[in-house]
Amino acid sequence: MIYIDEIIKAKVDLAAIELGYPVYFQHGHPLEIVGKLKVMSEAKSTKGLRYPLVALFRDFNERKGFEVGIASEADLNLIIATRTEPTYDSDKRKAESFKAVLHPILEALEKQILIDGRSFLTSGTGLGYTQIDRYFWGRESIYGVDGNIFNDYIDCVEIRNLNLKFKTPNC
Question: Which pTM value belongs to this model?
Answer without folding.
Answer: 0.87
